[in-house]
Design a protein that fits this description.
single chain; 195 residues; mainly alpha; Tetracycline Repressor, domain 2; 2 domains; 9 helices; 76% helix; 0% strand; HTH_TetR; transcription regulation; TetR/AcrR family transcriptional regulator
Length: 195
């Protein structure tokens, strides 16, 4: 076999493997975001992705491994917001919650009983705080104690539980939820400077 043919076959095989991985990720996102964790099985995932269970395991190692990959992929959109763009940050955050919020809330219910849920949620909280710090850096107080207090207020004000309370429990519209989040964020950032 010529070097050129071998290179083409290896490239085609790698592209096919990447397409398969992406298809499994899409199916995993759909199932984990719309069903309870217990109802998502390797078999239902494999069937929906049109792969064997072994192929799924080869790519992600386990159901938990796929959940981790889906969680990381779904939260990466926040990174496209420029520091200081509070309006854009709130919009991207709420867009993300509209897509994954219900799944996050279901995952929160499993935190004490499912190690992967605990790990993902701890990582998610740390990432959310870092994202808030990057987004709001120019507005944050310089003193460590004040900075920590404002970041904690921002975190509470923009947490998925705040979204759930407004959107799911109280039936507040998406537009009004954005207004409320903006009010929360401004109060946390600028209300603190008046003290």
């Amino acid at each position: 076999m010529s070097q050129m043919k071998r290179g083409y076959k290896q490239t085609a095989r790698a592209e096919s493997a990447e397409e398969t991985r992406e298809r499994i990720l899409r199916v995993g996102a759909e199932q984990f975001l719309t069903r309870s964790y217990e109802d998502v099985t390797l078999q239902t995932l494999a069937e929906a992705a049109q792969v064997s269970r072994q192929t799924l395991l080869n790519h992600f190692g386990s159901k938990e491994g796929l959940l981790e990959a889906v969680a990381r992929r779904e939260t990466s959109a926040r990174d496209r917001v420029e520091p200081g763009d509070l309006e854009g940050g709130i919009e991207v955050l709420l867009e993300n919650y509209e897509h994954v919020g219900d799944g996050n809330v279901r995952l929160l219910a499993l935190e004490s009983s499912l190690p992967v849920a605990k790990s993902l949620l701890e990582e998610g909280r740390a990432n959310h705080r870092q994202w808030l710090e990057r987004l709001c850096e120019e507005y944050l107080p310089r003193r460590d104690d004040e900075r920590s207090r404002v970041l904690a207020a921002l975190h509470a004000a923009t947490d998925v539980y705040a979204w759930k309370l407004l959107r799911r429990d109280l039936g507040v519209s998406r537009v009004e939820t954005a207004r409320i989040f903006r009010t929360f964020v401004r109060a946390a950032l600028f209300g603190a400077k008046k003290r």
